[in-house]
Design a protein that fits this description.
The complex is a heterotrimer.
Chain A lengths: L2 H27 L11 E6 L6 H17 L2 E6 L4 H10 L6 E5 H7 L10 H4 L10 H4 L2 H6 L12 E13 L3 H6 L7 H13 L5 E2 L5 H14 L4 H6 L9 H15 L14 H7 L5 E5 L2 H4 L10 E4 L8 E8 L7 H11 L2 H9 L17 H7 L5 E2 L1 H4 L2 H16 L5 H17 L3
Parallel strand pairs in A: 1-2, 1-3, 5-6, 8-9
Antiparallel strand pairs in A: 3-8, 4-6, 4-7, 4-8
Helix pairs in contact in A: 2-16, 10-12, 10-19, 12-20, 19-20
Chain B lengths: L9 H5 L4 H27 L4 H6 L11 H8 L3 H32 L3 H13 L4 H14 L6 H25 L3 H9 L4 H12 L1 H17 L2 H6 L8 H15 L3 H35 L1
Chain C lengths: L1 H5 L2 H16 L3 H35 L2 E2 L7 E2 L3 H8 L1 H34 L3 H9 L6 H11 L5 H8 L11 H29 L3 H9 L4 H12 L1 H16 L3 H5 L15 H9 L8 H26 L7
Antiparallel strand pairs in C: 1-2
Helix pairs in contact in C: 4-15, 5-9, 5-12, 5-14, 6-9, 7-9, 10-11, 12-15, 14-15
Classes of the chains: A alpha/beta, B mainly alpha, C mainly alpha.
């Protein structure tokens, strides 16, 4: 080798080493900073990423909380990845003191392993500045809707946002008004609405083809409309329940959507949020999702848009979802985190979820955003049912349901093939459990 | 191609360029142009606005939007992640070299059963898929509180690089003539001095190559970084990119900023390659092919 | 078996020399080597044992347990392997891994050898070689992201195809097409790397062999068939082993393919690495670490078997030149 190269190499190594040393100093000095307020501290991993409105509401509450109590909150705006990180973090004893997600996710990750703290003590806490307890402002029906965890409690999530799942559409869309003067009461009626929209050149349904959850809601509702309970169906170790006529009826109904070409044409090749955006831009009529979708698209829809929600025909009760705080059992500063939960339940703080983040809160004294009036109505039912993702074991979801349903939803398999595939996958699944 | 220049002499004239080879040649250039094109397109897109990219994917930036980079570096967290990536890859490579080269040296020099057994053990490590190691290392590091820590990640990278680096350097050290050492030993130099002042300078080319290859692989490593890191101030660039992709779903997509992030990962590799490209190719080919 | 695989001729020769000398009598240099052996080898060995060998052993051990990382482990015997045996998702993952390994490998090597033949005949091959090599240094996620944009419905590629008159191009990124797209991208990006390595081997072939072949009237293909291929066979077979290992490690390309998702990609496109990741770090359920490590052990076994097979199949007498 030549002298020149070796010189540059040495220089390079020199620079590299210097850089490594310099960075080494910065890399370790930052983490231990400023977190030692007088009132203690706790860590919070949030399901929101920092530009989402919910994050802004929570950030404001955190600032106010620290100012009032002196407790510092080390917040990480982790985004939806939080559900992937929480299990390993708890296993590594690096659990945050507080985190949030849907009840179904909390149940799947920690609750089913007995790692989510029972928060009934929080329900008994006084809300600062209000003469009431947390439990008295959160209607019991929300907590009761949360499936029980392995400790037998459903109080492992204190919800601050509640959603209902249904078919959303623009009631002010002339094509929609023409196609659907009144909400259809039968599936055939719904299909003819679709046909009318299609005839006008507007695809009936926008669907994120990769997402088995939102699309699965059609299945969940159709099963319900045909008198079949998803979680009982999934729990059948023999698979015989799949032969029930109600299942076939539900699957045949869905097949009409696929084979009739009522789903927006590119749906099999796109990823969330491509079709949500298409729908918000008026390129399709209906979009099935949780009620937070209205907030997600609020920036994209024109002011003439009139948001409405309906349930699939034959269904009288909406599936609900609760999103809220959870404390891992391994949390080291649980009591500080509990104080924050109670703090955030104040009307003044929680209102932001409605006014800023455009979502519905569990507190009855906080009005729902105007565009969610129809959703609030659905939530006013005396008892609430959670959607299938909460009641079906999440492993089942991955192993049995996901791919088979998407194959069917993409038109790769017929109704009969789908039922057969689900049946055999389910039998295998239950045989391999334990 | 060469046919056109008969003056080129015997070699040029003799080589008959058949049509198949000529078409093949065009194909090669097509590949090359597409590769370069993709690179240029990524770079120009990183300087454009989102709607601009969506509407005219192949356009040039009217006025370059350097704001994309500012946004990626601060909001996307790529700035902090880039520093972490530099630190992790440089530090892990330095440790790897410091630890592996003495070992490779004695393995190359000593011809005993133990020595060849150890060499074989390192070589066998080359065949282990990373997915085998990811769970045990995650569990192990969490036991000693080194998850979500750059030092933990560096440790992992050092371990992962051990088989290849030892193997590569053994080859280089074997090529260093023993005569040089003999002279040093006869002069009374101890083993450490012999190694540092005689062997290392002669094998410097190989050591640099091993260092570079480790920098490259640590820079691009994704699986372990994804599993081991999560705090926003600890992540490396590949994790920042994955995170950015998923937050984009909820905050609205901006391809311009995304491509700026991509360029931040890409640029150092491109710079390194245009500066030391032949050494990198040579290193990989000598190390692996021979 | 594998030791022989990667044993470099250079190491072999050098060791042979020192062995012969050692037999005569131990000189001062040999004594020094003997004394420094353990002090010099120990640190690397320690790193290797702690961060490589011990984890493999632990993975093998865990694969017999049911464990979520939180609760205590419970012995499951061979049950994890039985589950894998029956799990259709794992079947897909294993099939995909094999598809990448075999189909992807064959295509990559056919193209790489074709390019080798052409580049040898080309005058300015060096620049082309470097450009083709560069994708090796790029994080595979970059290609996944770029493809997610370029191939999106009515994206740039479709626009070009529309302009060329193809009105209904395939839905490139639909679930069933993602895996073939991953394969294509992979072949595209790894071809250059293997071309470069094989070319380096080809560069060592003495020129006179080609001149002799030309005098015999061999055309480019014949020169390739009768000179390049046999002379570079050793390098090619090492490359094949290398491909085996690296193709099983493919991860982030599949993870992000198609641009964006905080969920895992559809199970149709998983390979074993994704399966391990999905079982160990699931989106919203408890980890199945035992099952995940069992899947990883299957991947390890796969690499071992294929490597041995490859060495058997590709073994030839070494040609000295």
């Amino acid at each position: 080798m030549t002298g020149r190269t070796s010189k540059t190499t040495t220089r390079f190594l020199g620079i590299a080493t210097a850089a490594a040393l310099a960075l080494g100093v910065t890399a370790c000095s930052s983490s231990a900073s400023s977190s030692d307020g007088k009132g203690g501290s706790f860590t919070y991993w949030s399901m929101w990423s920092k530009d989402e409105p919910q994050a802004k509401v929570l950030q404001a509450a955190i600032t106010a909380f620290t100012a009032k109590t002196g407790i510092t909150v080390n917040v990480t705006w982790a985004g939806r990845n939080v559900s992937k990180e929480i299990g390993p973090a708890v296993a590594a004893n690096k659990a945050p003191d507080l985190w949030d997600d849907s009840a179904g996710t909390v149940l799947g990750t920690l609750g089913s392993e007995g790692q989510a703290m029972d928060l009934s003590s929080v329900l008994a806490m006084k809300i600062p500045g209000e003469n009431v307890t947390v439990g008295s402002v959160i209607p019991t029906k929300y907590l009761a809707s949360q499936p029980k965890d392995s400790d037998g409690t459903s109080d492992y999530v204190i919800p601050y946002e509640v959603t209902a799942e249904g078919i959303f559409y623009n009631a002010a869309d002339p094509a929609m008004q023409a196609a659907m003067p009144t909400a259809p009461t039968t599936w055939a009626g719904f299909i003819s609405v679709c046909a009318a929209l299609k005839a006008k050149g507007e695809p009936c349904i926008a669907s994120e083809g990769e997402d088995s959850w939102t699309n699965g809601l059609y299945f969940d509702y159709e099963l319900l409309a045909n008198g079949v309970n998803w979680s009982a169906l999934a729990a059948d170790k023999t698979g015989a329940s799949w032969d029930a006529p109600g299942v076939a009826a539900a699957v045949n109904d869905l097949e009409q959507l696929v084979s009739g070409g009522y789903i927006v044409p590119t749906y099999t090749a796109t990823k969330y949020p491509a079709q949500e955006t298409n729908w918000a831009n008026g390129k399709a009529g209906f979009y099935m999702d949780g009620s937070y979708v209205t907030a997600e698209v609020s920036k994209e829809i024109p002011s003439t848009w009139k948001m409405a929600m309906m349930l699939p025909p034959g269904v009288s009760q909406a599936d609900v979802g609760t999103f809220g705080f959870s404390i891992p059992k391994r949390a080291k500063n649980a009591s500080a985190a509990e104080q924050f939960i109670a703090f955030f339940m104040q009307k003044s703080q929680l209102s932001g979820i409605s006014t800023v983040a455009d979502n519905i809160t569990p507190r009855a004294d906080i009005p729902a955003p105007a565009e969610l009036a129809s959703v609030q109505q659905a939530l006013n039912a005396p008892t609430l049912r959670v959607d299938f993702s909460n009641t079906v074991p999440s492993d089942y979801y991955n192993k049995v349901y996901n791919q088979n349903f998407l194959d069917f939803w993409h038109g790769k398999t017929t109704a009969a093939q789908f039922i057969a595939a689900m049946k055999s996958a389910q039998v295998t699944y239950w045989q391999t459990q334990g | 191609m060469s046919i056109a220049i008969p003056a080129r002499g015997r070699r040029g004239r003799r080589r008959r360029t058949g049509p198949a080879v000529r078409i093949g040649g065009w194909l090669v250039w097509l590949f090359v142009i597409l590769d370069i094109g993709l690179l240029l397109w990524t770079f120009t897109s990183s300087l454009r606005g989102n709607s601009d990219i969506m509407n005219h994917p192949f356009g040039l930036p009217g006025s370059p939007k350097f704001g994309n980079y500012a946004k990626a570096l601060s909001d996307g967290g790529f700035g902090r992640a880039a520093l972490n990536s530099v630190f992790t890859s440089v530090a892990s490579s330095a440790v790897v070299i410091a630890v592996a080269s003495p070992c490779a040296y004695v393995l190359a020099r000593r011809r005993t059963r133990t020595s060849s057994f150890l060499s074989m053990m390192f070589v066998l490590g080359l065949g282990v898929p990373l997915q085998v190691l990811v769970i045990p290392l995650f569990i192990g590091l969490s036991k000693v509180n080194l998850t979500d820590s750059l030092y933990g990640l560096i440790l992992v990278y050092v371990g992962l690089a051990m088989p290849f680096t030892v193997y590569l350097l053994t080859g280089f050290f074997a090529g260093v003539p023993a005569v040089l050492e003999e002279a040093a030993v006869l002069d009374g130099a101890g083993p450490v001095r012999t190694f540092l002042s005689v062997i290392v300078p002669v094998a410097r080319g190989g050591i640099t190559t091993a260092f570079l290859l480790q920098i490259i692989s640590a820079w691009n490593e994704t699986l372990f970084a994804l599993v081991l890191l999560h705090s926003q101030d600890k992540i490396t660039l590949p994790v920042a990119l994955v995170n950015f992709l998923s937050t984009e779903q909820y905050d609205g997509q901006d391809w311009g900023v995304l491509f700026a992030g991509v360029c931040i990962i890409l640029a150092p590799m491109l710079a390194l390659f245009s500066w030391l490209g032949s050494r990198i190719i040579q290193g990989m080919t000598v190390g692996i092919g021979k | 078996m594998t030791a022989q695989v990667t044993q470099s001729p250079r190491i072999g020769r050098a060791r042979g020399d020192s062995l012969r000398r050692a037999r005569r009598s131990e000189g001062p240099l040999e004594r020094q080597h003997r004394r420094t052996f353990w002090p010099f080898a120990a640190p690397a060995l320690l790193f290797y044992l702690v961060l490589f060998i011990a984890p493999i052993a632990f993975a093998a051990y865990t694969s017999f347990y049911k464990w979520d990382g939180l609760s205590p482990m419970s012995n499951r015997g061979l049950n994890n392997y039985r589950i894998l045996w029956r799990d259709p998702v794992f079947h897909t993952a294993l099939t995909n891994t094999l598809k990448i390994l075999i189909v992807g490998g064959v295509v990559t090597f056919v193209i790489a050898l074709g390019l080798t033949m052409i580049l040898r005949e080309m005058n300015r091959g060096l620049f082309a070689r470097s450009v083709l090599f560069f994708p090796t240094l790029v994080n595979a996620m970059v290609f996944g992201i770029a493809a997610g944009f370029l191939f999106s419905p009515s994206g740039p590629v479709d626009q070009v195809l529309h302009a060329l008159g193809w009105q209904t191009p395939p839905q490139w990124l639909s679930t069933e097409n993602i895996f073939p797209m991953v394969m294509g991208t992979l072949i595209w990006t790894s071809t250059g790397f293997y071309t470069a390595i094989i070319m380096a081997g080809v560069d060592q072939i003495p020129q006179y062999l080609y001149e002799a072949a030309e005098l015999d009237g061999c055309n480019a293909w014949q020169r390739f068939r009768h000179v390049t291929l046999p002379m570079a066979w050793e390098v090619i077979s090492v490359c094949a082993v290398l491909w085996t290992v690296s193709s099983v490690n493919i991860f982030q390309l599949i993870l992000v393919f198609g641009g964006s998702n905080s969920n895992l990609p559809p199970a149709d496109s998983w390979n074993t690495a994704l399966y391990v990741y999905g079982e160990a770090f699931p989106q919203s359920s408890a980890p199945e670490l035992g099952l995940a490590t069992a899947a990883a052990m299957v991947a390890l076994l796969l690499v071992a078997v294929i490597t041995i097979l490859l060495r058997r199949l590709m073994r030839r007498e070494r040609i000295e030149y």
